[in-house]
Amino acid sequence: MQISRRGFIKVAGVGVAVTTVGAFGFGEAEAAVVAHVRPFKLANTMETRNTCPYCSVACGIIMYSKGDLKKGDATITHIEGDADHPTNRGTLCPKGAALKDFIHSETRLKYPMVRKPGSNKFERVSWDTALDRIARLMKDDRDKNFVAKNADGVTVNRWTSTGMLAASATTNETAWLTYKVARSLGLLGFDNQARV
Ligand code: SF4
User: Mean pLDDT, consecutive 10-residue segments, the chain of 196 residues?
Assistant: First the structure.
C-alpha cells in the first residue's frame, strides 16, 4: 500500500480521533478502562481519628475500618495521616506509615497478661484482675517504703521503690493528669515510653 506523508498524517489523525471518541464512551474503550480500574478502597469504610502510639510527636491519624465497630468485629483496612491535625498536617514518618502492620501483628499485646511466680509463660487476665492487682501491689509497696521526711526532718514525700512508665499516645490533658497522679503519690521514677 502506497501512502504519502500527508496521507499518513490524515490516517493517524483519524486514528487518534477514533480512540478519543471511544474513550468518551462511544466504543469498547470505556469498558476496557473500567475493567482495569480497582474499586476505591476507602469506599464504605468508617473513619476514626486517633493518635499514632509510637512516639511523643503524637501525630494525628485517620483509621479506616470495615465491619461493625459496636459489635467489635471491625477490621482496620487503611491508615493515613490526618491532614487536619496541627502536629503533622497529614504526614507520617515510616513507623507511623506502617501502623496497619503493627495493628494486625500476631505478637501485638491486646490484653493484660501475668506471669505467675515460678511460671515460664504469660497468661491472660481480665482488666479488673489486672487493675486490682496493680492497685494492691502499689498500695502495699507505698505503705512499706514511702518516705515522708528525710534524716534531717525535712518533708520530702518520696516513694522510690516503684516506677511508672507512661504512654505517649495521649492528649495534653491526659498527660497532665497522669503526671499529677504520679507525682501526688510521691513517685520519682516516672518516664515516658517515647524515651525508652
Ligand atoms: S508518625 Fe512517626 S513521628 Fe508521628 S507520632 Fe508516629 S512515630 Fe512519631
Answer: 57 51 61 75 89 87 90 90 96 96 92 95 96 96 98 97 86 88 95 76
Question: Cell 483509621, residue?
Answer: 63
Could you tell me which residues come within 8 angstroms of residue 54 by beta carbon, excluding any fewer than 6 positions away? 95, 96, 99, 168, 169, 194
- The pTM of the whole model exceeds 0.70: no
Three cell numbers, residue 96: 507511623
Residue 169 CA: which ligand 1 atom is closest?
5
Residue 172 CA to ligand 1 center (angstroms) comes to 16
- Give which of 104, 46, 54 is closest to 71, Cα–Cα: 46
Answer yes or no: are the C-beta atoms of 50 and 29 closer than 8 Å.
no
Residue 8, classed as helix, strand or coil, is helix
